[in-house]
Amino acid sequence: MNYTPQILDYLAKAGPFAELILAPQRKPLQRTETGFIPVGDQVLSDADVRETLSMLLNRVSGNIATLEKSGVHSFGIAKVGRFRLSYVTQRGSYVVSLTRIAYEIPDLADLVPDADALQRMAEFVRTRRSGLLVVTGASAVANNALVYSLLKRLSETEERVIYILEDATSFLLSHGRSVVVQCEVGRDTSSIEKGLAEASPFMPDVLYLRDVTSREQIHLVTRAVGSEILTIITVSVLDGEELIPFARTEFGSELICGVWRVYPEKGGKVRVSLK
After folding, report:
1. Are 185 and 242 contained in the same domain?
2. Of 83, 93, 97, 234, whose Cβ has the fewest other Cβ atoms within 10 Å?
3. pTM to 2 decimal places
4. How confident is the model at residue 61 (pLDDT cuts 50, 70, 90)?
5. 202 and 87, same structural domain?
């Protein structure tokens, strides 16, 4: 059975950063800071998860999609919101994560309630002209929302060239006083390596590479980190255990200007540990 309408309706009311996990032989589960909340009464079968995933992918492509072994996508629904869809296979069955994304880029002051952290972050991105900033945390959606909120503030207040490279565009960042270039891998450019090479003619002041997952991707930003470019990457907690120490070795501690840990909280807010 296709449970897409019920799932999207639930997430639409749950607020930004709300995540549902769909797995065979379990009820849909909302992940929270303290554990799981079962959603509904129906235990999902393998066929239920597969059919629901197919219908969710249909919202991405506009056609009934051929299921791959894994994938990461995003899609929007007018007057409802945006969603990040991730899925993997386990012994032939699918496990799905679907997360609600804020429809518009949140203002930094609305996202971060801690006034001291807010001031430090805003000052950092305003004055910092080079180096590598690593943003990490358990929620890729919250990590990305924080970076976009920072870039929104920067675009509105400073004259910079901001270059964004990501697998699936999550937000549209408008030109403010800054000029914004957003490239999506697979649609605007063929690969991360190609996208970074294409950034050179624009001489960006700020480069944002979302969801770095490998040493090779960190190595690709070497030129930017060593130049007068503020480079920002997001890294999951799982990947960060390996990649953050590797980045320190790759660039040296003097070029890593910060490692910020993001903790989602209730009401679409985040807490940020600044190091």
Report:
1. yes
2. 93
3. 0.76
4. low
5. no
